[in-house]
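Long-time lurker, first post. I've been practising inverse folding by hand and with some scripts of my own, and I keep getting stuck on stretches where the structure tokens seem ambiguous. Below is the full token string for one chain I'm working on. Before anyone asks, I'm not after the true native sequence, just a reasonable design that respects the backbone. If someone could post their per-position residues I'd love to compare against what I wrote down in my notebook.
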């Protein structure tokens, strides 16, 4: 029986993806300077989170392939 595990890293990866898409939409559709600056300051945080989560997911995938 094949059981699919859910990783907390996967949830954080998709959370950072949603954060990045939200920041992009705020930057595109906002009409105030405050919202633009908030979006531009949120994008690097989301990008760093996406890269770290993707690297942890890749490491987990390599460990699962080597241990199976």
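-- Answer (accepted) --
I ran through it position by position. Result:
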């Amino acid at each position: 029986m094949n059981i699919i595990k859910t990783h907390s890293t996967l949830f954080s990866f998709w959370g950072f993806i949603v954060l990045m898409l939200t920041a992009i939409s705020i930057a595109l559709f906002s009409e105030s300077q405050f919202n633009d600056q908030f979006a531009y300051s949120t994008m690097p945080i989301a990008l760093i989170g996406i890269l770290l989560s993707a690297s942890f997911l890749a490491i987990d995938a390599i460990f699962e392939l080597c241990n199976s």
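A couple of notes from the structure itself: DSSP finds two helices and no strands in the chain. The longest helix spans residues 33-67. Happy to go over any region you disagree with.
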